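To whoever is on call:

I kicked off a structure prediction for a single chain this morning and the downstream step that reads the tokens threw a length-mismatch warning. I double-checked the sequence; it's 270 residues and nothing unusual in it as far as I can see. Pasting both halves so you can look.
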Amino acid sequence: MSNQALHLLTFVLYAVLAILFWRAQAAGNAEQQNRGALGFAVIVPLVLHGWLLYDTLFIWGALNLGLVYALSLILWLTVLVYWSARYFYPLSSLQTLVLPLAAVSTALPAIFPDAHILSQPASGLFDTHVLMAMLAYSLFTIAALHAGLMSLVEKRLHHAKMPKVLQNLPPLLTMETLLFRVIAIGFVLLSITVASGMLFSEQIFGHPLQFSHKVLFGMASWVIFAILLLGHRFYGWRGHTAVRWTLSGFGFLVLAYLGSQFVVEVVLHR
């Protein structure tokens, strides 16, 4: 089967599952379905998506990390985290929201197939550094999604009727607990990424450390998340404060890689 056909099949499977999850939400049994057959079925497009990523991320022995491929990887990891955690947290409503995004992410590489081969010399250390960074991006994407939804729920609590999609979200305390656990894991991965980039710059990138805008924005994001975790641990930061700091840190991460890639690939066509 060709890659185009696999992209189409994966897109269709994600889309069908998204529709089934929406129907389960409307019927009020989404959580039961997510922990049963419907949730287990997500593994099929997830495996296909993972194969497509493996087949397109590594081209001619080099790492291809163009904008659409990076987005696809982030959303694949996001679905994987939700799928793995579904037995521990009530995540059916969040899975319902992310599945359509994952479907779109599988279509983008087929629509915009231009590769962006990273120019650094191929090495296992370089590939590991970049892929760990993308895992951190994925976890902070989940954190940003949670923070945004928490903000919406808090704003709608005093309204007479809350939109159905918000009614089915996990309790705020559950979302907040998961938010800080995801941020903590993402922070560890981001710390390793930043430290390895600084300590082993010549081995990873082939040149001494250069303080580019990516390094600056990456460090700013690391500092923001470090302050947030310390504030939560010692001063009990939560609610609006946690949401603001989370979204600010995520914004700097977006600028560090995805923003610059958008300018290079979409605006400058390089």
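Update from on-call: the warning came from a stale cache, not from the record. Cleared it. Sanity check on the structure: Residues 124-156 form the longest helix (33 residues).
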